[in-house]
Design goal:
The structure is a homodimer.
Chain A lengths: L10 H12 L4 E4 L2 E4 L1 E3 L5 E8 L16 E7 L5 H11 L5 E6 L2 H16 L4 E6 L18 H13 L4 H13 L1 E9 L17 E4 L10 E4 L3 H13 L9 E8 L5 H17 L3 E2 L3 E3 L8 E9 L6 H7 L2 E2 L4 E2 L5 E3 L20 H35 L4 H21 L4 H16 L1 H18 L7 H19 L9 H16 L4 H31 L11 H16 L1
Parallel strand pairs in A: 4-5, 4-6, 6-7, 11-12, 11-13
Antiparallel strand pairs in A: 1-2, 2-5, 3-17, 8-9, 8-14, 9-10, 11-14, 15-16
């Protein structure tokens, strides 16, 4: 379990402060993460990596000459927000373009894509290579999650930047590295996030979950804990069955500990891995044994194979090229010098200016702020339940993400309202704060929803019933555009669409807003119950060993909670 | 807990095999441990480090250019044997002398000193600098244990070797580094050795042991788990109070995780450490945060300060000099190339030749072998109990060490007897095997005891009662010479001396050997009960928070067990 923290809410920020203090030779903090504290002799393409925190050395431990130029650091196990990624990428850009690379998780894709769009709008050439090395996470290679194989893709891309490749060239080798990288992991026990009352997940004593994700995402099998040799066989056999097209007979094995499976155990396993790879006719190149992608003190390990060509070639040259970062170093990197840029504070800086609203809109803004206050209290109370629901199908961070988002929105809304903002500005400030502090998929979606509501309502006049219904419709469209989910996918959209539809109907039929809103909230609640029931069924099926294809998230449940609570204060 | 292993008895050897396969760029296996697989352009002084396994990257992970030349790798948490250390040092020596450096533990001192004596006998100039950084382990700096501060002493000494210093020069800076290195550690929970039924030690839930050793040696205080900032304050305050004489205002902080306190937590703590050092007017140089001396998955952390001079000087230059090892790298080391030396096997090689004994001595040798068979069975059965006794005062490895020693001696004795050896050779082969496989303090002492017995009895004639009593007296003298303990120190000597005395008396009074031996064994048993009672009292006192000055070991208990069992088969 994680024992050392101050206020759990400050953990990620304090971790970044400590990392920057300890690693000033390599990096400095910027809003949203870290960038190199060194400068190359000439500008190169910039590699920006990132993801949730809690996986050190992924991602910030891999920033330095020959590897990444910056890392966007989300909250614990939560995607960095769009703002965070944009801030890091903008600080890392040297005018030759940015390659973004990260593990394939919905929240990361959403936020990195949005940041990429912003960079492109500003004229920065930006590409993305998503890492998909975890063979157990999906049959289709394109849908797989990214785990310890991140390192292979980052290292090859970083070396290509260092070698002076243009953005096309860096993107090409990064994509090739991802196609040639395969990982398989196992876990013996879960981890507990700072301040959490219970582990994020557990594995029964004496058992081993095969293919369990680095946030506890369900695996594909459960067995008794094997011997070290038995585990080596399972991992090597599983990966040899997934040999990528075009791969030669030279491989880089990376045996990774997730946190509390330690070096001596890993070396015992590695001895057998090395022998088995040799017996399979493969030549082992430059192996790595250690901790490259952890999950706090999760008890688990993974094996990654980076498949090279038959003769030492481009990938091998890039993999073995020098690099110098806090957590991964090899050889000597020439042509870099420290920079004197003053370390930037990680705080968000001065508050955004507020344009004062009309008297009616200001009154409405105050009611919106009161609604956020109530919503934050409800999300505080329900965070544990939402986390448990999320654990059945996902990584268990939904409760804590909604809680963080709600608290941040409450503060931002209260501040804006106190400074005379209208309803639109209160909502848009709340949207930014929610997205920035919650991170993850739900953070990005809620930010889009609130921002669209605020834009629709504006800061002048008192919004009437029809204006509210229209604003909700606009929010519905914004969520659909951001998330890509449809009704029936068992996400927040399953509750949002009936809510907007019923609200529209009742308002169209002449109902007052309080009645119309209550009816709409009831419809959202019924939809949420459906997804909750499906989630419970999924949990039981998993407990019986079934591998379900459905992965409902608790977004509908939390959405219904929020609209019911907000309605009591808005209307 | 440690989950991944095959046969626990093979763990250390298999770990070395895996390490050598994964780290061939830096090192290769030799009997007893590992040495560099690279060769410097010109010969330098060789730095040989070592200790028990289970602390990776200490010690084998620190072998490579700019750091150590070889590491003697003992069994888990047990000192390497004299033979192991000698083998590694002989392989590492390049004709300019050997500096040995290791943490201050009784077993390591005993075995490294014996290996040093052998090297000096063979004309190799050899010096020793024992690391004593753990401020909580004793008030007298010379008596303190060595923990994560090992790295500071090794790094400075290795850099001095690399810089071409002669042995005097390397010894001088290593001694200076040790005088300037102070560490303080805490633990939240223990670790379980491969295949063990229970943890080596535990810390109550929600509590923190202050100053607990890396093998679970008792600490100086127990508190509730503090906040990260609270821990930083405790560690910094404790170390500032121990500022060494002659230290300047520049310090290197090393925040070390013991195994399952992970990087994110360490960085949160480090942020506060960094701030507190600055507030104390100190300049932080080149900090390190990570895992440098672990204890499997023990939950704990330690802070080390290496105190430099006021202006950047010799120590700082040596600390920051380049090095390249599996687990610790910085900068680029010039002037080294890989060697083509065939990897040596870690097996002990061909069996030693046996000189056939006289018929009477051969019969006696067969009885000795039968006695070892019975002793090994008893030690198997009692290993857990001996381990528990040892855990009160020491590191809990006595049971497993005696078990390993007994098994190895049984095999060696049976083999020698089958090949026609006399009693003396059977005992001396058993002595070598016991010392080599058991490691630790008790391994070295039992090897000395059995070797002296064998030398005294010889391989000709049937030893009579008087010869046996005289041989036991010789063994008693050998143990006193090797261990330096006296009666009353609550060690094995407390049982050995009454055993030898009573045996002498009874034999002198004309008793037959069976009766005399049984009386002597009874005397040893009574002495052992006294130390066991003291140990139990110590355990209760510690449980009530007392810090006892006595540290009885279970050597008397196991000695009494062995002589009682052996007597039934010898006489």
């Amino acid at each position: 379990m994680t024992r050392l923290f101050n206020d759990p809410d400050d953990f990620a920020a304090e971790m970044t402060t400590g990392l920057a203090a300890a690693s000033a030779r390599w990096l400095r903090a910027v809003p949203g993460g870290v960038v190199r504290s060194t400068e190359a002799d000439g500008p190169t393409v910039s590699l920006v990596v990132g993801g949730g925190s809690g996986h050190y050395p992924a991602f910030a431990g891999l920033v330095g000459p020959g590897l990444a130029h910056g890392a966007a650091m989300g909250n614990l196990f939560a995607s960095p927000s769009t703002q965070q990624i944009h801030s890091v990428a903008a600080a890392a850009d040297r005018g030759r373009g940015v390659l973004m690379s990260y593990g394939n998780y919905a929240g990361d894709v959403l936020n990195f894509d949005a940041a990429q769009a912003r960079l492109r709008d500003a004229g920065v050439d930006c590409r993305t290579v998503v890492v998909t090395d975890d063979v157990s996470s999906a049959a289709d290679p394109a849908l797989r999650r990214g785990i310890a194989g991140d390192l292979c893709v980052f290292k090859v891309a970083g070396a290509a930047c260092e070698a002076g490749h243009d953005l096309d060239g860096v993107e090409r080798v990064a994509r090739l590295a991802n196609e040639r990288t395969r990982s398989l992991g196992v876990a013996f026990d879960g981890c507990t996030l700072p301040g959490a009352g219970s582990p994020l997940f557990t594995v029964p004593d004496g058992r081993m979950a095969v293919g369990l994700g680095i946030h506890g995402e369900p695996g594909i099998d459960e067995t008794d804990v094997p011997t070290a040799a038995g585990l080596a066989e399972l991992l090597v056999r599983g990966l040899l069955a997934e040999r990528p097209a075009g791969a030669g007979d030279r491989v880089v094995p990376i045996l990774n500990g997730l946190g509390s499976v330690k070096y001596e155990e890993l070396y015992v396993v590695y001895g057998a891995v090395h022998r088995l790879l040799g017996e399979a006719g493969l030549t082992v190149v430059d192996p790595e044994v250690g901790e490259f992608c952890t999950s706090f003190d999760m008890a688990g390990a993974s094996l990654t194979l980076l498949w090279l060509d038959d003769a030492p070639g481009e990938l091998e040259r890039l993999w073995t090229a020098p690099c110098d970062t806090p957590a991964f170093r090899r050889g000597a990197v020439a042509g870099h010098h420290g920079t004197t840029a003053a370390p930037q504070d990680t705080a968000a800086g001065a508050p955004a200016a507020v344009l004062e609203g009309s008297p009616g809109s200001r009154a409405c803004g105050a009611r919106v702020a009161a609604a956020f206050d109530a919503v934050a209290a409800v999300l505080d109370a329900e965070a544990d339940r939402l986390g448990r629901l999320d654990r059945v199908a996902g990584d268990g961070d939904h409760g804590i993400g909604m809680q963080r988002g709600g608290r941040a929105a409450r503060e931002a809304a209260a501040d804006a309202a106190a400074r005379g903002a209208g309803a639109g500005t209160v909502l848009r400030h709340a949207a930014d704060a929610w997205g920035d502090r919650a991170g993850g998929t739900s953070g990005a979606i809620w930010a889009a929803l609130l921002d669209a509501l605020g834009t629709a309502l504006g800061d002048t006049g008192t919004p009437d019933t029809a204006a509210v219904a229209a604003a909700v419709r606009a929010a519905e469209r914004a969520v659909a555009a951001a998330g890509g989910a449809a009704v029936g996918d068992k996400t927040m959209v399953d509750a949002l669409v009936p809510f907007a539809t019923v609200l529209d109907e009742r308002v169209g039929a002449g109902e007052d807003l309080p009645v119309a809103w209550a009816d709409a909230a009831d419809a959202a609640g019924r939809a949420a119950e459906d997804t909750a029931r499906l989630t419970a069924r999924l949990g039981r099926a998993r407990a019986h060993g079934e591998r379900s294809v459905g992965t409902p998230d608790p977004g509908a449940v939390s959405f219904a909670l929020v609209v019911r609570t907000a309605g009591e204060h808005l209307c």
